[in-house]
Structure formats: C-alpha cells, structure tokens
C-alpha cells in the first residue's frame, strides 16, 4: 500500500533512493512532507482526502501542491500523474474486503474508495484553481481523457466530479493591455479635469487600474521573475511596474508643473488626500507608489513648497512613510496588511523581494532529486497572496471609463528621473542658504539615472495611440455639449492640465479658429507623446514568409498559410498575425538596447555643448546599424528564395533578372534612406536647440515669477 | 550597542540576495522566513565593538523607481554591488553615488563598492582595475566577493561598519531638516 511506503523509507537499505522526508514541525497544517519525489507528492495529495471527499483535518497540503506545482512540473504532468495512479490502483491498492470484485457497485471496496479520493483531489483542483484549466489546453485534454476513462468504467458519479464545463473563462488574462469591460460602464458623472477631481474619485480609479493590471500577472510570471530577476519576456509584470512608476512620476510632474510654491503645495495636499483614500481602499501598492512619488527627492528638496504644506498634511505624510517604511523588514506594513480582511492589493515589490530571497536561499531539490516541499510551502504563502486577486470578481469601486481612459494616458507619460530632477532645480534653485550641500553635480550635466531602470520601458506608441483615441473620445463625450465635434479652448486647457509639460511645444489649434476638433486634439496628444517617448519603442513590422512553423507572440497561435503567413519586426524579430500585430504590447528590445547605449555614451562624452552633436551622430549611427541589419535580413531572404526557385523550376534567367532588379532597387532605397537620415538629423538638431531655448526662457520667466511671489 | 542600517543596491541578477543570505544565514540556518521582522538583522563584532546590522536588501525591487528612493532615505551605509561577469551591471551603478547624494542631501556617505561572482573568473567582463578605479573616484573601499564560495562576504559588512564609524555623519541634523522643509 502506498501509504506505508513513506514510513518504510528510513528502514530501507542505504543505497535505495529516498522517496520522502518527513517534516518535524509542519509549517502549515497538514504539510508534513519535507521533501519527496513528484509521485509521492501526488499520492500524499490523494490521501489528504477522506472517503466523503472532505479534507482530513483541514489539511492545507493539497492547496499548496496545486498552487505550487508549476514550480517543478507542468500542469499536464501533474494531471497525468493522477491518471497514472488511477490506472494502477488495481495493482497497488490491496482490498481486504472478502469476496470483493472491485467494481464501483461494490460498497466498501478499498480500491474504489482510493479511486474516489483521486477524483476528489482533481475536483478540488478544478474548483480552487479554475484558472489552471482555462488557460492550459494540454491539461484540459488530459482531464477530459481522464473523464472518458472514468466513464468507461461505468462510474458516472466520479465523472461528475471532474467535469470541466463549469470552469469560468479567464480570457482577460491573455490580453496584455487593460481594456474596459462592458460590465464596468457605470454612468457615474465625473469631471475629467484634475483640479475638479475629488481625491476619492482619483483613488478609486487608480485602484481600478491597479486591480486590472495586478491580477493579470500569473504564477509563471512571478516564478520567472524570482528565478531570473529580470523583466525580459515578462510583459504583464513589466506593465504593472510601469504603472507603478508612471504614477509616481505623474505626481511629481503634476506638482512641478505649478509655478508658485503655494500651488505646488496644494497639489501635494490633494495627493496626500488621495493616499488617505487608497489606505481606506486597502490598495497598498498604489499607496506605495503615491507616497514614493510625494517623498521623492525631486519634491522633498522644495523648501518653499514644503513650507506651505499644512502641518496636518505633513503629519499624515509622516504616518504613511512610517507605515510603508522598509525598517525592520517592512514590519509595519506586514502587520497591517495581514490584519486587513477582504479586498486588498499588496505592495508588489515587497513580496517579490520575499520570493527572490527564498529562491536564493533554498534549493529546489534536496537529497539527490527530491522536491524541496518545505520551500514550496514557504513560497506558497507569498504566492497565495499575490495571486489572490485573480479570483476576486471586482474591486469595491465603480469606475467611469472616461476617467479611466484619461488617467491611463496621463500615467503613460514617461520621463527620466533626471528630467524631473532638473525641473525641480528650475522651480526652486539651490542656494547658499539651502541645507543641501554645495552642488554635488552641476545641474546641466546629463546624468541618466533611468538607465538603472533599463528593464522597464515606457509603453509603445501603439498602446499610446489607442489610449489617446479612448481619452479624446471620452473628453468629447463629456465636454462637447452641443455634439458638433468641437470643444472650446478653455475646456481643452483644463484637460491638458492633467498632462504636465507636454503642451509647451505644439500649436494645437492648427487652423486658428478658436475651436478644437477631435482630430486636432488627437494629433496634439500623439505628437506630444512621441516627443516624450523619443520615438524609439515602436515595432517595425513587415509582412514575412516563414519556412518553418512559427507562432504568434500575442495569441500564441500558429501563423497559417504558405507564403506571407505573418508579420515580423525588423528590429527585434518577434512574429505576429496581421490582426494581432497592433495588439502586441512588448518593447522592441534591440532598439531599447541601442537607446541605452546612446544615452550612456552621451553621458561619458561630457557636458551639454557637445551633447547635441553626439546625440545626433549617435542617432545616425544607430540608424545606420539598423539599416545594415535590414540589409542582412534581405540577403538571407534572398538566399531562401534562391533555393526555392532552384528547386521549383530551375529557371536561372528569371532569377538573375530579379536579382539585378533587386540590387538596383536596393541601391535606390539606400540613397533615399541616406538623404532621409541627413534631413532628419538636421531637423533633430534644429528642433532640439529651439526647444532648449524655449524651455530656458520659460524657466527663466517662471523663476522670476517665483522669486516675485 | 550601535545599530547600523545598510542598504544593498545594484541591478537585478548581480547576486545581492545571495550575499545577504550568506551573511545573515549563520543565525537562521534551519528555517528561512524572509517575512519575519528580524530576518535581516545580524550582530557582528567590528574592531572589538559589538554592533547590530540591519540589511535593507533591494533585490526584486530594482525596477520600482520610487521605492529605491525610500530605501536610500532609510539607509546609513550603502553596499553597491555589480557582477564582474556583466559589464552592463557595472555601467548601471556608475550613477548610484550621485543618486544617493541627491536623496540624502549630504556628500559624505559611507559606502563600499562590491564586485560579486568572483568565482566565475572565466566569464569576467569587468577587470579588477576598473572596479578599483571607480572606488577611487568614489573614495570608498572596494572588494571582489563570491557569495558562492563565501569569499569576502562578511568583510563587506565589516568594512561598511568601519566606514560608518569613521565618517561622523551629521545625519541626525540633516534628517530633521529634511522633514522640516
């Protein structure tokens, strides 16, 4: 009987491989195994269930196993393991009932009882972790086959237990970007303008966005991050972190966009009130992002501004800084978080840190090849908390989609830490009275701190384009009262206030008629965003013919057809369906890399006068590199086609003609490309200088105004 | 007994948590529970003076820009770690000192530069001299370590305690003024 194997193990001769190690003091109720082979783990799971299908002594063992199994085996393997046990039951289980023929109709048959427990275990899996089944077709088919097997034995009661038809759909988890669901269309009337927004409204909508992004991150995403400590190929986690950082930056920019200390202090007070509401909503992750933004060095150094903040607000700030402080291993936060019942959003960073530490400290396998189940039990406590939101139906907030769209776009804006800090210096320059010691760095020196964050990129233009579209539609729905497709200048200005610093460069009302049309507004926001993004995160998709089966990066489906099956990015090489390519939310890695190098180089090349030059020449270089890459790409393609044509008809004449033509075209392309690049770099230099000049002038004016105030 | 807060900074994957684990593990061999309050605390004796260290390990939170600021604000001494097998991680930390100065608002900050993964000599991308040079410009000690072979692990923390003892930080006053601002 398998139940005895474990107890026998220590008595076996020393050369027999160990199958199980017992835990002396279980970490969790029922988790008595310290380490074991996968087969033993599955047996133990079956044996955690009583004859009536209930858990024996409320053991937490099955929930840990089902939650954690993907750490060491696929769901398909686990499913198969249950089927294997079921099939070998007749040999491994000893039925002591006299005269029993082991059919399901035999009451008290021990083999049938064991089989029932296997089905109870699988049922437990299906009801408690439906997401595993909906997202994994291999597992689904294993369990379906299992159902057929059970059914063929004539056991309909068991078949019922492992029915998959009630598994809810987790379709939303496959999408990277947060899209408004129809069910969320509450017609709550809210203002879209920051100045008119209530702190509660802001907090609720931020929570809604957070909830949507957080629950998409699945077990495998967490596991990959814990193992690699990198966000590469982890777009969902990356998106959530981008939201976190985006909010912190938005807060800093909103504060710094105001010209007088009092105005800046007012914005800070407003965000502290938002923080209060977030605390009430138990959204600790967004709270961390808000507090992180408010206490950031770019704001903390604003002496005049901080002098205008009422003491009450300062007290609240201190309270939250204390709550989220990393002191004593975040003990304040952990205490409060563990005591919170119901809906709550944990601080992602804190728990990721726990995962990484556990993974570093403990091996996955011990004593030869036994799975270290104690580690699994420990990891499960963190992962349970992190994946809890997946099963939460909805956050306790109602969202207005128009405001969500506006906010989402505001948070997409991307600045470097350095840009923000310089803004802060421009608002309240360092002086000899300031407690900050004498300029550790000259303000103009371009130090790019954002490089340290190389893993997180701003959202790509396609996403932004969609977000701009949604936002503009939302604005017109709410403010274009006579529905003529135009809004007034004043209304536009109010909305643009939500997007600090992007409005200085563009002339919006292109036809100068004093009214803003939808098209004008969209162009405006998109151009402004491109500027903020430095235009280097877009995929360069082109139609492509594959010579071996290739899968779409977005929907993971096969790219069908004989030729031109899909679209390939010229720079990073990802592949997608025609209809999926616009939905891909993944940064273009090779460009990202080039961008990083460029920034690093310009840093090492010293102060600003030379920077323009290095910048543009670097850009030229990277573009040339890109072109070379494209070149190589066409060559390989050409080689493929060469092979193909030789095999098919061996018609050399046509081939040569084509090659000659191809060459000619390529040369032409090269020439125009070169011209294009030259013009672009000219334009870039001119634009850069102009903008620098305008900015300087503006800052000078602001400083003058500040000092007057 | 004096208490020291040491922040371990560096890019993802350089082995920060491995160093931390090696250092604190002496007291917690049997059960690792990184969620308990004093998991990251350890008592060590430096130059005959017993001291308590609290390690603020930033592993896993490297990408969270505003959390890093909070960590730095809380810390007194800083161990800045790169991997000798990755030039990128060395480039990443070059601006760290400036950022710490920015957050702390003081120039004289106790810190140490650490090149980890010294056991992977055959994959080395950052020469020892490069690390020494950076440490010289930062005016701080430099160590090459291996969490795997427990090479120089305790030394990092002993050195940083020494640094904190020698630079009489006027932090108290600075901290208060920060709050008052």
From TrEMBL, chain A:
GO function term, MF aspect, one: calcium ion binding
Domain Ras-GEF: 198-430
GO biological process, one term: Ras protein signal transduction
Domain (EF-hand) ranges: 467-502, 505-531
Region described as Disordered: 599-628
PROSITE patterns: EF_HAND_1 (PS00018), EF_HAND_2 (PS50222), RASGEF (PS00720), RASGEF_CAT (PS50009), RASGEF_NTER (PS50212), ZF_DAG_PE_1 (PS00479), ZF_DAG_PE_2 (PS50081)
The UniProt record lists the keyword NAD: no
The entry's keywords: Calcium, Coiled coil, Guanine-nucleotide releasing factor, Metal-binding, Zinc, Zinc-finger
SUPFAM superfamilies (UniProt xref): Cysteine-rich domain (SSF57889), EF-hand (SSF47473), Ras GEF (SSF48366)
Composition bias, Basic residues: 617-628
Extent of Polar residues compositional bias: 602-616
GO cellular component: plasma membrane
Phorbol-ester/DAG-type domain mapped to chain residues: 538-588
Domain called N-terminal Ras-GEF: residue spans: 29-169
Pfam family, one: RasGEF
InterPro entries tied to this protein: C1-like_sf, DAG/PE-bd, EF-hand-dom_pair, EF_Hand_1_Ca_BS, EF_hand_dom, PKC_DAG/PE, Ras-like_GEF, Ras-like_Gua-exchang_fac_N
Protein name: Ras guanyl-releasing protein 3
From TrEMBL, chain B:
Alphabetical GO biological process terms: signal transduction
One Gene Ontology molecular-function label: G protein activity
Gene3D superfamilies: P-loop containing nucleotide triphosphate hydrolases
GO cellular component terms given for this protein: recycling endosome membrane
InterPro entries assigned to the protein according to its UniProt record, in alphabetical order: P-loop_NTPase, Small_GTP-bd, Small_GTPase, Small_GTPase_Ras-type
Membrane topology label: Lipid-anchor
Keywords: Endosome, GTP-binding, Hydrolase, Lipoprotein, Membrane, Methylation, Nucleotide-binding, Palmitate, Prenylation
Protein name (database record): small monomeric GTPase
